[in-house]
């Protein structure tokens, strides 16, 4: 017959099972106190668990740091869709711990749960890394990516409730000091892994590879390798681990108790003081297996009902859960660091000083660094000082202040967004058309007018443009456009060698921004893309309208070897044929004058290949027309650039040629400079018929980012303070105020609040409530203030603190002495339970 049971490191094991079966040290061995004794008796297998956690956290946070940019730049999701997918991933990652908990506690134990799910987890990382090597636009996207992310979310959540607790299992339960040291080391490794990965992985992403400025295969590949290493390190300690048997899953027991109580409440007419007590309506101690077992094992408790005690514990859990209702709103704000705040950073200037940029996906590391600094500051300085001022820093008071500060972080972010909005273009609605005019005459000013609209002056080689930072808004805005709008632009010129006054007929499309380019070499109307670069590496977007005839191309190659210029050599009239071939921009001045362009020097060479340019038509004043070449937008980093005609001497190939395998001929007069990031530009390259010189005209479609990314630092500081006061304190409140038997359930509920917080973000994005991101951030701040108002009301009129500190922890059947305590809070130490630490990791 099975003997009495004792609580053993969170597990129930038979009384007659010797502790030596699980630990080399007997329960009677004295706890090591000196450093030397601790080193001698320290379970060496825990180093495998700690190493595993470091690698796993590096893997997860590294992948997560660059995920939003991957969704935008590779999967071509817009900002809203990327936000939805990012937070859907987080929702799954914070609901899957329930699965891991069930497996570990009720079926296969912690060891096999960690090992089996880690293998699945690693396969998800590998799938995502492989998918990132496949070209953008492939039909394999986004299906394979979503599969990989789903597996990763299941994996990281599945092992979350197991790893730290499994490490604690390696110690005899009375080695409380060593367990405390273990948790300190364990969570230092968590923070070290996550912080280092959030610094390095964006750098891996920004490393040029495979012909692109960004290298997501490297950014995902290294985390995948680290997850495989993590699994290997964990298995290295397999033969020396203490592997405690599984037990009953408390979460399921709580759910069952609540379900029976609700069913009995509606089926019975009896009255109870609390609705959960209806569980006892159908309970009979004489037939209940738990009561029978408890009475046999502990005769002194034979007059006490175990299930009645458990109902009381569930009541304590319900009280805590009511107080956690406002918590999801905090996570709805906090988790936007990985989505909306990164998107905000994309529209800011990442350059800190010349040659150094702080990447948008690196900003999240500020929170990790600040939290490491701020926790000891609050514990050692802030809280004691507040107490000395006569203010009792109860847990709920800390949470209330923390929630208000979290709202403050979004007020700060909202004001930053107001400034960011100044460089975001106005997007015309489907029944609107925005129209600019570009004056390509080098020495002639232009005065333009459109019937019933203002007359405007355009300087030589200038244009109409919008720049909200400078309060310069000169684009024509046409409303009530029924699909198309035909209009006439009246242009008068004043200056040297000017064209006669001329009327230009154009047709505008609803929902588009377009421009008219005027020059003596021809005119054309083009629609423009308003999308700012999203790579976050200091780029600006460049479109080139090229109007240089083949005769100029042939002249350019006379001083070098003869080059076959595709359409130019085949043209019967090269004077009227426009160059239609590869065009590149290379850093000026070049490192090697003889080989000025190096296709393998990514970031210093950008080329328009055959599928990235097309022919368009320009019209002359006399009504005749000529083709010109439109090179589609290309994102180019800040630098001084020069345009080159480029010919690949070995022909087309998937292999990137060396600098000696191409012929690059400079385009005279085509040097231009980018000194910012995030701008959108249209360059017109054409030849003056009068002077024969090559002219370069720049039209600013969208101005460059003008706010420094450092302006995000205050909002990260504020959200970090909020995290300490609300998140860490909130978990301590939930843990300390739940009955001892409810600790693991509280952890599960806490993780679920994270999922609900991210679900709030998803719902708001799907409802598409806000056009202005600044307004959205202010609305989040207002919502947080509102839920904190609810928390204040609950704190005053509903909740009373409970002290479980006197309850004997080694006897699960001991009756709770839940003493009501006003304005007095129990403290929680790390060694109290691994559940507390698992929950802290979720922060």
From TrEMBL:
Predominant location: membrane
Transmembrane segment boundaries: 58-77, 83-104, 111-134, 146-167, 179-200, 220-242, 317-334, 365-386, 398-420, 716-736, 748-767, 779-799
Annotated spans, Disordered: 808-843
Signal peptide residue numbers: none
Keyword Repeat: no
Ranges of compositional bias, category Polar residues: 826-837
Keywords: Membrane, Peptide transport, Protein transport, Transmembrane, Transmembrane helix, Transport
GO BP: oligopeptide transport; protein transport
Subcellular location, record wording: Membrane
One annotated GO molecular function: transmembrane transporter activity
GO cellular component, as recorded: membrane
Protein's UniProt keywords contain Transmembrane: yes
InterPro entries (UniProt xref): MFS_trans_sf (IPR036259), POT_fam (IPR000109), PTR2_symporter_CS (IPR018456)
Membrane topology: Multi-pass membrane protein
Coiled-coil zones: none
A Pfam family this chain is assigned to: PTR2
Assigned protein family: Belongs to the major facilitator superfamily. Proton-dependent oligopeptide transporter (POT/PTR) (TC 2.A.17) family.
Protein's name in the database: Oligopeptide transporter 1
Organism of this sequence: Strongyloides venezuelensis (Threadworm)
């Amino acid at each position: 017959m099975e003997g009495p049971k004792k609580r053993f490191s969170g597990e129930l094991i038979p009384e007659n099972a010797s502790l030596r079966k699980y630990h080399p040290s007997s329960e009677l061995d004295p706890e090591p106190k000196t450093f030397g004794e601790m080193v001698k008796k320290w379970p060496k297998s825990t180093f495998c668990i700690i190493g595993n956690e470091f690698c796993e956290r590096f893997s997860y946070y590294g992948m997560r740091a660059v995920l939003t940019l991957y969704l935008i730049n590779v999967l071509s999701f817009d900002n809203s869709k990327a936000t939805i997918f990012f937070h859907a991933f987080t929702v799954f990652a914070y609901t899957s711990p329930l699965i891991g908990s069930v497996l570990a506690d009720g079926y296969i134990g912690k060891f096999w749960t960690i090992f089996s799910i880690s293998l699945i987890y690693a396969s998800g990382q590998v799938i995502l890394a492989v998918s990132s090597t496949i070209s953008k636009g492939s039909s394999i996207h986004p299906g394979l990516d979503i599969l990989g992310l789903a597996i990763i979310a299941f994996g990281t959540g599945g092992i979350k409730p197991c790893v730290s607790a499994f490490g604690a299992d390696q110690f005899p339960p009375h080695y409380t000091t060593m367990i405390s040291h273990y948790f300190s080391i364990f969570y230092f490794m968590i923070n070290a892994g996550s912080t280092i990965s959030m610094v390095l992985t964006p750098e891996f992403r920004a490393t040029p590879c495979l012909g692109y400025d960004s290298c997501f295969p490297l950014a995902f590949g290294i985390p995948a390798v680290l997850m495989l290493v993590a699994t290997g390190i964990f298995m290295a300690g397999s033969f020396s681990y203490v592997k405690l048997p599984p037990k009953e899953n408390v979460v399921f027991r709580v759910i069952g108790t609540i379900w029976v109580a609700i069913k009995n409440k509606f089926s019975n007419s009896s009255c109870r003081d609390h609705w959960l007590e209806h569980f006892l309506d159908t309970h009979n101690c004489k037939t209940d297996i738990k009561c029978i077992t408890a009475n046999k094992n502990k005769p002194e408790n034979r007059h006490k009902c175990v299930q009645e005690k458990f109902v009381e514990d569930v009541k304590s859990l319900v009280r805590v859960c009511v107080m956690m209702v406002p918590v999801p709103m905090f996570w709805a704000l906090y988790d936007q660091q990985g989505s909306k705040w990164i998107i905000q950073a994309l529209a800011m200037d990442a350059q800190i000083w010349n040659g150094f940029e702080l990447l948008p996906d690196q900003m999240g590391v500020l929170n990790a660094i600040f939290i490491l600094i701020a926790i000891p500051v609050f514990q050692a300085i802030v809280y004691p000082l507040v107490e000395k001022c006569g203010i009792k820093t109860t847990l709920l008071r800390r949470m209330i202040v923390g929630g208000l500060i979290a709202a403050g972080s979004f007020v700060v972010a909202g004001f930053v967004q107001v400034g960011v909005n100044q460089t975001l273009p106005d997007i015309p609605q489907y029944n609107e058309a925005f129209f600019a005019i570009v004056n390509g005459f080098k020495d002639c000013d232009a005065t333009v007018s459109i019937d019933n609209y203002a007359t405007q002056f355009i300087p030589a080689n200038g244009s109409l443009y919008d720049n909200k930072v400078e309060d310069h808004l000169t684009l024509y805005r046409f409303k009530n456009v029924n699909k198309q709008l035909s209009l006439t632009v009246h242009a008068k010129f004043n200056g040297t060698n000017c064209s006669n006054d001329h009327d230009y007929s154009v047709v505008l499309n609803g929902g588009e921004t377009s421009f008219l380019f005027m020059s003596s070499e021809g005119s054309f109307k083009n629609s423009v893309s308003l999308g700012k670069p999203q790579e976050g590496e200091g780029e600006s977007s460049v479109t080139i309208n090229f109007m240089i005839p083949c005769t100029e191309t042939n002249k350019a190659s006379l001083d070098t070897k003869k080059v076959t210029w595709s359409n130019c050599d085949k043209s019967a009239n090269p004077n009227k044929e426009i160059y239609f071939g590869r065009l590149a921009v290379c850093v000026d001045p070049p490192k090697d004058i003889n080989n000025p362009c190096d296709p393998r020097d990514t970031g210093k060479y950008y080329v328009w290949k055959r599928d990235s340019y097309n022919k368009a038509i320009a019209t002359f004043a006399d009504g005749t027309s000529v083709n010109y070449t439109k090179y589609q937008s290309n994102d180019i980093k800040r630098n001084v650039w020069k345009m080159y005609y480029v010919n690949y001497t070995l022909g087309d190939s998937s292999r990137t040629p060396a600098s000696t395998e191409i012929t690059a001929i400079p385009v005279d007069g085509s040097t231009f400079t980018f000194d910012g990031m995030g701008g959108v530009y249209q360059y017109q390259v054409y030849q003056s018929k009068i002077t024969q010189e090559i002219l370069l005209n720049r039209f600013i479609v969208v101005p460059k980012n003008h706010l420094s990314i450092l302006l995000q630092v205050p909002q990260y500081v504020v959200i970090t303070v909020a995290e300490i006061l609300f998140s860490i304190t909130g978990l301590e409140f939930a843990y300390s105020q739940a009955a001892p038997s409810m600790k693991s359930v509280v952890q599960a509920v806490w993780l679920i609040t994270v999922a609900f917080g991210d679900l709030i973000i998803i719902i708001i994005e799907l409802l598409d409530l806000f056009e202005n991101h600044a307004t959205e951030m202010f609305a989040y701040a207002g919502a947080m203030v509102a839920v904190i108002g609810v928390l204040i009301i609950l704190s005053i009129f509903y909740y009373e603190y409970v002290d479980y500190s006197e309850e004997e922890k080694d006897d699960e059947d001991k009756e709770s002495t839940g003493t009501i305590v006003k304005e007095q809070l129990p403290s929680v130490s790390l060694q109290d339970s691994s559940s507390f630490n698992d929950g802290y990791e979720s922060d």
